Amino acid sequence: MDWRTPADSGSVRESVARYGGSGLNPSTSTDWYKALLRKKALITNQGVDVQGGSDKVTYTAGFNYTYQNGVMEAKNDFKRYNIRLQMEAKAFPWLKLGFTSILNNSTTHFPNNEAFLTAYTASPLIPIYDEKNVIAFPVKFSNSGLIGRGDANALGQAYYNFNRLKQFQLLPSIYAEADFWSNRLTFRTQLSQLYSSGLRANYVPQRNLGVATLVSNLASTQERTTNYILDNLLTYRDGIGSHNWTVLLGQSSRQEQWRMTKVAADNVPADEEFWYTRQGTPNASYYDEDGYRNRGVSFFARGTYDFDSKYLLTATFRADGSSKYQTKWGYFPSVGLGWVLSKENFMKDQNTFDFLKLRGSWGKLGNDGIRPNSGYASVTVGNPGSSIFGSVGNANGQYVPGYNVNNFFANITWEVVTEWDFGVDFELLKNRLKGSVDYYNRRTSDVALERSFPFGAPNIYGNWASMDNSGVDVSLTWNHQVGKLGYHLGGNLSTLKNKVTDIGSLLNIPGGYPEWMAEFPNRIEVGRPIQYFYGYEVAGIYQNQGEIDADPIAASANAAVPGTVQPGFFKYRDLNGNGTRDDGDRTFLGSYLPKVTYGFNAGLNYGNFDLNIVFQGVAGNKIMNLNRGRYVKGQSSLNLDAEFYENLWTGAGTTNEYPSAYALSKSWNRPQGASFFVENGAYLRVQNVQVGYSFKAGSKAPVSMRVFATADRPLIFTKYSGFTPEISGIGYDSNVYPVSATYSMGVRATF
Are 190 and 175 in contact, with CB atoms under 8 Å apart? Predict the structure, then answer.
């Protein structure tokens, strides 16, 4: 093997000397993932539901218990008790009263997710445990520093971690519904509430991994969330002949509060009985307290009209107010039209469509699910802010203070989505084939995001952009029964074209993943998808010196600094044609947004048996693989994934895609973003497979029984080299937790 650096071969020799082997062939080859992850993680779920009542009062009660092990071999599990109660009483013929309550009590032990990343980066040259590491305690974990490396021990990180969250949540709601005027007029009022509290204890014991003794630490976090929603609805329904209409007037008030307090202490005893920060040395740097209170109120009206269930009209108007913004109110109208063609006389003699409906709509909708107005004033005190020209901090022996006030404020308002769409619904072949096709065009104005300002100002969150989303939605289902065999097929497909239409006077807005913005930037620019990946296009790998000398980019780089570009290095496209690699060669590298999202399902039943399978997938999106990209951060001693390692360039003609091992440590192959690290994010996943058998047990009072087996996410097809292509956020994969497959069996009984 060709080692990338002398330090690498040095670590191998030290591993051989300490743990065995010969020359550059160590005996130690630790599979950190195999050691860190469980082969099986148990999930159990039991529940009981009871319902009953009379013509005056009905009730439903239920209890559920769930336990789930995490996939990491550590204190890593979830336990929840759930109690549900629902009751409705008919106090008078015209009045119904109802009550619903859900109570959740859960305990979660979180793993140390840093251990999962460490398993990716840690050297296999050390074992998990090392009895020679005599100063390590309480467990003799190995330490890579003893062979000249700086990797953490993944098992040690997972073991020295106790992170527990206890949560209690209560969701009660009460309502009353009154009917007047022969049930033409209905009034309903409902109060819904949420009370949630959580206490997190994160304890790390005193320990030594072979370098220095680290003191114990306790971090305690308490959170409380409360909210309420009060809804009042007045509905009038009436009709004359073939004319039918409904008018609804509504009002909704809401309030949400959240409060969080964090405290911490060092040198806290290991016994949980003493897990209070007063039992140790307070750590003031960890203290934090935060919270918010948001209020909102809405008034809305909706009217519907239909003639003979053939011509349909719906119109809505909303006035929404939010305490988050300086501009409190937003006003949002919408209208929808429908025409059931299959009811027209000219369609009576056709035998193609059993049902055919055309529809279209236009409307606006406000989104207040964004951050509120943000801003602050900063005061600089002292010589840098002195108001006395030429002050040097001391004048005649006296310090001359100065003050400089900088104000930063963003006037946030509603994000507004304006959408129009046109669609058709149809049923064919004696209602066996059903489907719909829609075209939509959605413009989002006043998109809220952060942007930078010049002259040292911080990033400011504001309504800085507008964008368009358009596409087609298609859905089809087929149901058929042939004797005892019934089967169904279904599918859906959605396309998306995203384009930024306005960012004010700016040419672009740079951004990216936190702490990686310089190395792997994204960009917002008019005419492109929002937050697209931005960087250099890799055209291949230089195979020999002749290719380097013939390429103006490489030749100019070597003329400036000999040896900058060598065989096995990346070859970049000269997009601006000036013969050098510069900012003018950076370009669009793809979007994290899928162009196509699709799914399909199939099922059959024969007698008491049934089988169902569901597929789901996306296409046309890209993923920035930061696992591989860590080399760009200068961490060239890290591991490579197997595909990367096995395909490294080792000589002319070996590969035109992967660089050499030597190249990974050189700056030429570490530009600000490169298409090599942007991968195809398309996938097709088998989302769910279930087989079941239903039957009745007993003769006098038969019990309806169902036995079933389920596989969730058992299989995925993808070309992406990471653990999973299902990346949340804006498409950066920074060693995300893998998606687990779940296999379960169950029994359901109805008495």
Answer: yes
